[in-house]
């Protein structure tokens, strides 16, 4: 497949703006394929050979590779860093759910997730660990009565209003519009204990001990220019986000104050991966001393 255009999976949210700039201003020759259902769906697409690159949430990528039952080579490897700052996950319930008064009232409830293994699923365990809802050394961790798989953000919002799920977690600014509309209600928030977005590549393009495919190197060079453009042209970024991505101008402006993209997207800090694995093991998402280890998850030139 050498020479073919890269197929890049991404989440069509405000974070995708530097990728948009790389494509429109800096000649990135790639097909950008939106995955509104998030990282878990991209894991499946990478393994099915439907995309070559994924830009998604750190915890979703690492959980996907770290499970002990992963078949074959896992289908992808971490190759780059897309966002340096943590992600603020807003915790939401239905607008008319008076019985849900606080984060503590979510214990044992039904959590809505986009997919099993997605960021919204993984962060449920991180939330449970933070609040002491996990049973130490239990073979099966069940802080919630059910994980209700709902695929899309719209389905998640509908489910907490219908009672199909009690709560879900999604990025703060993407959720905020629906708080303002009165469609859903905010219960609280939790930040990822790691930098929030990573770039992964199919193992067909990123093999241990071999140079990265030249198209991935070109992607890093063009993304770096997209990030620089984002930093140097904030008003253009705000206009793009508020015109094309369903955010208000005020929310786009506020989000811009909270996010930091790396000046060089190539590479992943080993300690970010090992720290994330450690927290996911503590939270019961990954099993200690089983599954792929941190150094095997990353391919670097």
TrEMBL record:
<protein>
    <submittedName>
        <fullName>Putative ABC-type nitrate/sulfonate/bicarbonate transporter</fullName>
    </submittedName>
</protein>
<dbReference type="GO" id="GO:0042597">
    <property type="term" value="C:periplasmic space"/>
</dbReference>
<keyword id="KW-0732">Signal</keyword>
<dbReference type="InterPro" id="IPR054364">
    <property type="entry name" value="Ca3427-like_PBP2"/>
</dbReference>
<dbReference type="Pfam" id="PF22384">
    <property type="entry name" value="PBP2_Ca3427_like"/>
</dbReference>
<comment type="similarity">
    <text>Belongs to the bacterial solute-binding protein SsuA/TauA family.</text>
</comment>
<feature type="domain" description="Ca3427-like PBP 2">
    <location>
        <begin position="89"/>
        <end position="190"/>
    </location>
</feature>
């Amino acid at each position: 497949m050498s020479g073919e255009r890269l197929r890049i999976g991404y989440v069509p949210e405000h974070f995708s703006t530097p990728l948009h700039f790389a494509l429109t201003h800096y000649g990135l020759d790639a097909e950008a394929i939106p995955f509104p259902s998030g990282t878990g769906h991209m894991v499946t697409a990478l393994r099915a050979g439907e995309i070559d690159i994924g830009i998604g949430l750190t915890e979703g990528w690492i959980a996907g590779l770290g499970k002990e039952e992963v078949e074959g080579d896992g289908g992808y490897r971490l190759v780059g860093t897309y966002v340096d700052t943590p992600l603020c996950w807003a915790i939401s319930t239905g607008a008319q759910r008076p019985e849900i008064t606080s984060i503590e009232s979510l214990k044992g409830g039904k959590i809505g997730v986009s997919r099993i293994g997605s960021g919204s699923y993984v962060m449920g365990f991180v939330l449970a660990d933070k609040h002491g809802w996990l049973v130490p050394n239990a073979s099966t961790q069940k802080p919630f009565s059910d994980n209700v798989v709902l695929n899309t953000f719209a389905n998640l919002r509908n489910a907490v209003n219908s009672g199909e799920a009690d709560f879900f977690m999604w990025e703060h600014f993407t959720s905020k519009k629906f708080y303002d509309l009165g469609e859903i209600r905010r219960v609280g928030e939790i930040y990822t204990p790691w930098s929030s977005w990573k770039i992964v590549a199919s193992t067909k393009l990123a093999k241990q001990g071999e140079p990265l495919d030249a198209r991935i190197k070109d992607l890093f060079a063009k993304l770096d220019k997209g990030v620089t453009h984002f930093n140097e042209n904030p008003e253009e970024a705000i206009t793009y986000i508020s015109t094309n991505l369903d955010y208000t101008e005020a929310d786009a402006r506020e989000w811009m104050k909270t996010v930091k993209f790396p000046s060089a997207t190539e590479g992943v800090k080993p300690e970010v991966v090992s720290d994330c694995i450690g927290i996911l093991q503590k939270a019961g998402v990954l099993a200690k001393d089983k599954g792929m280890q941190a150094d095997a998850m990353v391919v670097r030139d």
